[in-house]
């Protein structure tokens, strides 16, 4: 366990990280292509760290709920691997980074017949189709609640309906995948599950707990229960490092050096060494779709706490 002085020093670094993040907010814009997301408060910014000992370091708007969006791709990949298995999932989805936008159709037409990885929209839609369960969304929500340590996580119906109404590009991707024989099931049913998964509400604190579980190889250090198989955690964390920050993943890996996944709702989940998890929230996004404040917070924490995997 850390001494009181060490805990106070970490909290000071967290406070500094928040201030550093606030200084970058002018560089971003709130996501507007989903009408409900455009209502976000541009000044929100928060961070939470959770250690395997259960210690919490937090500052700012770490308890404000927001939609998980693309961070859901990590949970759905876990569920798909648990239910369909490695061979089935990766027969339909690759493991390679892409330099294209997260919602690109170009790669499906010109580069390969299957999505490059599960962290882009095309890959996540195929991942959703691999979840072969009678009540797919209910099982997904149960998994998220367990891994985040919060039974109150809920579906935002307004965001779900907004995404379903305006998700024409994702429909194009789904029907193209169906025409190429990659997508199993009916596109509208798969998309409905995908839109629901993106529309659940989490907090930075929830994400910190989830990242802490991943950092502990899928085990809850309090109960000793293995929540996720170690091999699945290894796959998910590797893909987060390679592909989790859209087409900014390489630059982010150099500057921050942590397996992370962002979402256009403003969240970032980051898996740190030593059983530590980090969650950030800031809806002001850069052109790649990543939270500018959250990214700066993580850069500060990585540097000041010596968290970079390759440092």
In this structure, how is the largest beta sheet organized? 5 strands, antiparallel
What is the succession of H and E elements?
A: HEEEEHHHHHEHHHEHHHEEEEH
Structural class: alpha+beta
The count of helical stretches stands at: 13
What form results from the Cα inertia axes? Answer: globular
Order the strands across the largest sheet as they lie in space.
Answer: 3-2-9-8-7
Proportion of residues in extended strands: 5-15%
The parts where pLDDT drops under 50 for at least 5 residues are none
Helix share bin: 40-55%
N/C terminus separation: 24 Å
What's the gyration radius in Å?
A: 18 Å
Mean pLDDT: 93
How many beta strands in the DSSP annotation? 10
Task: Give the SSE map.
Elements: H1 4-22, E1 29-30, E2 46-50, E3 56-60, E4 66-67, H2 72-83, H3 86-92, H4 106-110, H5 121-130, H6 136-148, E5 154-155, H7 157-166, H8 168-179, H9 187-198, E6 200-202, H10 204-215, H11 230-243, H12 249-255, E7 260-262, E8 267-272, E9 276-281, E10 284-285, H13 292-304
Antiparallel strand pairs: 1-10, 2-3, 2-9, 4-6, 5-6, 7-8, 8-9
Structural commentary:
This protein is of the alpha+beta class. The protein has helices spanning about 5-20, 70-85, 85-90, 105-110, 120-130, 135-150, 155-165, 170-180, 185-200, 205-215, 230-245, 250-255, 290-305; strands spanning about 30, 45-50, 55-60, 65, 155, 200, 260, 265-270, 275-280, 285. A hairpin with a 3-residue loop joins strand 8 (about 265-270) and strand 9 (about 275-280). Helix 8 packs across helix 9. It is globular. The two termini are about 25 Å apart. The model has no long low-confidence stretch (mean pLDDT about 95).
